Amino acid sequence: MTNAPPTGDVAARFRPLAKQFLPYLLASLAIVTVGVLIFHKFLWRGRLLLYKDIGADSLNDYYPTVLHLSDYIRSEGFPSWSFYVGMGQSIFYLAGELFWEPVVWLRRDLIAHALIFQHLGKTLIAGLLFFRFLQIRGLNFCSALLGSLLLAFSAYMCMGSCWVINADEVVGFTFLLLAAEIAIARGTWFYLPIAVALLALITPFHLYLASLLLLFYVVARLIEIYGWRPRLIVWPATQIGLAALIGVGFAAVIWMGSLHCMLNTPRGSGLIPNFAFGPAPGKMFELESLSYYVTAALRPFSNDILGTGDKFHGWENYFEAPVAYCGLITMLLWPHAFLWATKRQRVIYVVFLALLSIPVIFPWFRYAFWIFRGGYFRAFSLFTIFGFIILSMRAFSRYLEEHALNYWLLFGTLLALAGFVFLPIRVERALIHPKIRELATISVCLLAIVLAAGHFFKRHKLAGWIAVLISAMNLVYFDSVTVNRPTLHVHDLVARKGYNDQSVEALRDLKSGAREFYRVNKTWGSGLATRISYNDSMVFGYHGTMSYSSFNSLDYIRFLLAVEAIPADNLATDAQWSTGLLWEPLLSTFACEKFVITREPERFENAQQYQFLRRYDDISAFRNTAFVPFGLTFDSSFPEEDFLQMPKWAKHQALLQAVILPGKASAPHLQLHQLTLEDIKERLHEISVLNALDHLRANAFNLESFRETRIKGSVRVDHDSMLVFQMPFDDGWHAKIDLNPADVTRVDAGLLGVPLPAGAHKVELSYSPPFLYVGGGVTLLAALAFVALIWRWPRIVVCSTA
């Protein structure tokens, strides 16, 4: 039996390990403490991170999406196609949320309660990653700790408690910065592919944003280290670029299919030229309004200095305005970074300031940053925050270690900051909050006095820790204003209102008596936010036609536009907040509407096709007696060009008479009867709507098996026909007729059709996300390349100076 090692030896063995991890433990404790102080009402006072004000996206978009994903991965598996979104569309672009939003793995009844822990977890991860980044940059513990707090509780991150993509971006881009710095400073490159791959899971567009950040940061750091010597810059930068490219390949199995989804949306296709803020400025150096510049200048003092939530008085709105607040000490100290910098560092800092200020002063350049797909401050504000925290914390670290401080610059900066917030600004909407202005001014003055006193009495470390405490208090107060806006409470989840109203019972009863595929027309949104909810189908689990999403299916919107269910004059709004076929009874019938639940029963009580079923408090349920099945056959076609010229009422009836095909030609390999405009007019005059519906039911697809991604059934047609499924077209759908591969085609200005020869047939539809297998092959090659390069090329190689 071996003797146990002496206690002293064990302690000595673990002492270096404890010393190594102690800074991270202390940093974690500080981040968690500040987080608890800011979010304490969400942790033990029953508030939920589901906002009812301008942050209604959390309640109307994000929450329904994660609920649906939670259900989907249990019933269907990996996110693919869903009939619970609009009239059906691919949700493959949401696959990255399986990683970035871990609440989707919980049961749906736990998700609302878990949102706060998910956000605080992201805050802790982002803070620790940035803490490590600043340490590798050579900053001492105190300044690295303060920098991690400033980033973790920046306004950008706190807005991520509501608009979740902000929090994901902070974590993702912080990891990218850390990976890049490790590659540059230590030559270890294998974190870079992982960081790039994780950013690609947010959206494919984040690969572009990652390339911008890497391009500037890597080149700037290499110049800072090696000077203006191309040989020492180009080769390491190329190696880092190759490592990042492996990360692009890592995530190809997800981002290639996601990109296809996003390009096939009104936003990605260019149907809406500029999705945010309207068209880009016509001139490169065109200026914006005074309110815009006042907002951009004041918001670094506090995210809420111009109002909070719906009471925001600055430019545009609370979310879209610049989000640059990251602690007042940042504004006070960043100019000091220039004083003791080398000449090349000053050039880098000037270039950095120019890259940040020019797009703010001249909005055209900000649109260029977004490739003219909008004029967002998102991501751009985050890159600004990164830069100013790094500059200010370098100055703060120098203050602590080298006792470097310039009184004139310190108090000159203080007077400029204090003087600016007290300027007698009289701009429409730009109303400064007096209490926040006073607290911001007091905080900046206290910080300046503490730093000056510490320098004067040569107590720099003591002054530094007092500055950290003041900054933390500043973060707690200002961030509490940002996050403690109107939200749901836990009792809202159990009360008979909102997403737990009588719709639950009504839909449960309707589902119990129906077996075929059908849609429900729910005429109001149950969400409790100040904005209408359009995604109730994902919450309650029924098939509808409404959808709120930045990435609605392009063919879904094209169909709605063609039949004039939504107007074309406000597409930037209606393509996102789509009412679907609401209040379009004939179109709804064509699209498999079987039931209606409504709070406006008078609109259906006297309609011939609706039969009253039951009342649930203030909710009434009706059956559509004119219901037609999923999958309709047509042996006649009508040109889309003529269809688009018809009046709205005639379009709706024409859909019951013939399949609408683009161009003058019929479908390939089919002999469809081609109708002229006169033929259609004659049919509409001679054949009543009820008779047309009876004919469609008699010759409809016989559904035998239905899942979200696989549909099976049979159909018999006496003539060559087009089988029209009342769902948007998508390249991912594949058809088989009698077990033989068959074509699918776009019909009815955006729906999916399958050409059928005359006879009786078995038809099967299956969905596979486009580029899934191609992306999988690229991912496999990238993984093999990663393993091979780790073995043969474990470190970044720098050219010899010889």
Verbal overview:
- The protein is an alpha+beta fold and 802 residues long.
- It has 4 domains: 18-51 and 95-188 and 265-487, no CATH class; 206-264 and 771-802, no CATH class; 498-624, no CATH class; 632-770, no CATH class.
- Helices cover 53% and strands 12% of the residues.
- The protein has a 5-stranded antiparallel sheet, with no helix packed on it. A 4-stranded mixed sheet has the order 5-8-10-9. The chain has a 4-stranded antiparallel sheet with strand order 11-17-21-20, with helices on one face.
- The two termini are 60 Å apart.
- The mean pLDDT is 92.
List the helices and strands and how they pair.
Elements: H1 7-44, E1 47-51, H2 57-75, E2 81-82, E3 89-90, H3 97-100, H4 108-136, H5 141-152, H6 155-159, H7 164-186, H8 191-202, H9 205-226, H10 230-250, H11 252-263, H12 266-269, H13 290-298, H14 328-333, H15 343-361, H16 363-369, H17 380-402, H18 407-421, H19 434-456, H20 460-483, E4 487-489, H21 490-494, H22 503-512, E5 519-522, H23 536-540, E6 547-548, H24 554-562, H25 571-574, E7 577-578, H26 585-590, E8 593-598, H27 602-605, E9 610-616, E10 619-624, E11 632-634, E12 636-639, H28 640-643, H29 648-654, E13 659-661, E14 673-674, H30 677-686, H31 689-698, E15 702-707, E16 710-717, E17 721-728, E18 733-737, E19 740-742, E20 745-747, E21 751-756, E22 759-767, H32 772-792
Parallel strand pairs: 5-8, 12-13, 12-14
Antiparallel strand pairs: 1-4, 2-3, 6-7, 8-10, 9-10, 11-17, 15-16, 16-22, 17-21, 18-19, 18-22, 20-21
Helix pairs in contact: 1-4, 1-5, 1-20, 4-5, 4-7, 5-17, 5-20, 7-8, 7-9, 8-9, 8-10, 9-10, 10-32, 11-32, 15-16, 18-19, 19-20
